[in-house]
Design brief:
The protein has helices spanning 2-9, 41-51, 59-70, 85-98, 115-129, 148-156, 210-213, 235-248, 283-294, 310-321, 337-344, 347-352, 386-391, 402-417, 424-428, 432-443, and strands at residues 32-34, 37-38, 74-84, 103-108, 133-139, 160-164, 181-182, 186-189, 193-197, 223-224, 226-231, 269-276, 298-303, 306-307, 325-331, 356-360, 364-365, 368-372, 376-380, 384-385, 392-400, 419-422. The protein is of the alpha/beta class. Helix 11 (337-344) crosses helix 16 (432-443).
């Protein structure tokens, strides 16, 4: 019993983010950097005022609040390409890898030994043999089913590989924290192109979801996911994130390479790179909390693994009650039944408050995205659950502005067309067996 009490008392907790928008003291203008360095307040104010003059909300104030909450500045001058589903994402990443001349950095949760994983491995080996410095950081839990020989073959070719937080405590260095995982998906090529989002290196993503594949509803259409490609000054922020993750594992030096080349402006997108980790400052959780609390028109959230904490439930229900259009697209089918039922335990409270819930049909939902008021968007690896907010290293990109917001809204609308709405009436009529599964799974919510 004493051991159980000690275990429970050591559980991590989220910060109190209730009414976060009313407790912060932001700067007059948010900090903005570009290819030439940090802009003065006057230049930042002029840039943001011009860029967001027609926004439905005061994005300058919102951005300053988010900086106060997360401590992370904005980065201007980027090109962001929205990538739908596995085939398009895999093709774009492999094209970038094939173009590499200096270095390739890959950080992934899953790296399977299957058709897709073997294609990636072969391409990485080929680039290493061509003189490109290839380094791979993979999670040891996410790759439990991947034979060690698969990684050893890449090592023999000269690729540097690290297993993040090894399951075997004797194989790691430092304090053993098996519950803390690296859930990020980052690819950086030559320090000039970066990719991030929800897509792992696996044949699971070999097929598109229904609306992108044109397949019939009864076909095997794969998983629905979202990734982005980044070009411009923000690539350096992702590079720093990778380098920090690598050095924290204390498993050897990276080869000398040109990690930080000059990065001129590549587009007009203003972004914030949020990298959270266990024991950190909960940057992604705070950004979500603040955006939801500040929403005036709409909250359109797509969540693969949705086991919301009490604060998130309160924020979503409060938004719906004040007239915000709150719509959630959640899984209709899943690869994790415990998480599936744990998330459904919150449905009744959300539906009763006016939140509209839709379940994606046919495809397995794996995307982790949101668009709020049509101008605040995020794409990343973080789920809406305690595992992502407390125990995982995650990375989300916040993209501010109407043009990218429209792309996100269009994607959301397409997903809605392939989803079924769950009403309060139909939900209350679900069988008792489902209720019991929800109760049991929700009791394990902290550990899922």
């Amino acid at each position: 019993m004493a051991g159980l009490v000690g275990l429970l008392s050591s559980c991590a907790v989220l910060p109190n983010a209730r009414m976060l928008d009313q407790t912060l003291t932001p700067r007059a203008a948010p900090t903005v950097s570009n290819a030439k360095g940090v802009l003065s307040d006057a230049k930042a104010d002029a840039l943001l005022s011009k860029r967001w003059a027609r926004a439905a909300i005061d994005l300058k104030t919102q951005a300053a609040l988010e900086e106060a909450a997360t401590g992370v500045p904005l980065i201007a001058g980027n090109k962001i390409t929205l990538l739908f589903d596995g085939p398009r994402t895999m093709a774009a990443m492999m094209t970038a890898i094939a173009s590499a001349t200096n270095h390739i950095h890959l950080e992934t949760y899953i790296f399977d030994q299957d058709e897709m994983g073997l294609r990636f491995a072969e391409l990485l080996i080929e680039k290493q043999k061509d003189g490109v410095a290839v380094s791979v950081l993979y999670d040891s839990v996410g790759t439990l089913g991947t034979p060690e020989a698969f990684f050893e073959r890449m090592r023999q070719a000269g690729i540097r590989l690290i297993a993040f937080n090894p399951v075997n405590p004797a194989a790691g260095s430092g304090k053993w924290r098996v519950n803390n995982r690296d859930h990020r998906k980052i690819l950086i090529v030559d320090g000039t192109q970066a990719f991030t989002g929800g897509v792992n290196i696996s044949a699971t993503y070999a097929k598109s979801s229904l609306f992108r594949s044109g397949a019939k509803a009864d076909a095997d259409v794969g998983w629905r996911d979202t990734h982005i490609k980044i070009e411009g000054p923000a690539v350096a922020a992702l590079q720093w994130t990778f380098l920090k993750s690598w050095t924290q594992q204390e498993a050897g030096e990276l080869p000398a390479a040109h990690f930080f080349p000059p990065l001129p402006a590549a587009g007009d997108k203003i972004v914030r790179i949020l990298a959270s980790e266990p024991g950190g400052d909960h940057e992604i959780f705070k950004a979500y909390a603040l955006a939801i609390q500040s929403a005036e028109k709409s909250i359109h959230l797509t969540a693969a693994y949705f086991v919301p904490d009490l604060q998130t439930i309160e924020s979503l229900t409060a938004a719906a009650r004040r007239g915000v259009d709150v719509k959630l697209i959640l899984p209709g089918v899943t690869d994790s039944s415990l998480v599936f039922y744990a998330g459904r335990a919150a449905y009744e409270q959300l539906l009763a408050a006016g939140v509209r819930i839709y379940q994606l049909k046919v495809a397995v939902l794996h995307a982790k995205t949101a668009v709020i008021d049509g101008t605040w968007s995020t794409v990343g690896s973080s789920n809406i659950d305690l595992r992502s907010f407390l125990h995982n290293s995650e990375l989300n990109v916040v993209i501010l502005g109407e043009s990218f917001g429209r792309e996100m809204e269009n994607a959301f609308a397409e997903d809605l067309r392939d989803s079924q709405e769950i009403t309060l009436q139909t939900w209350q009529a679900r069988p008792i067996s489902d209720r019991l599964r929800e109760w049991a799974a929700n009791a394990l919510g902290y550990w899922l």
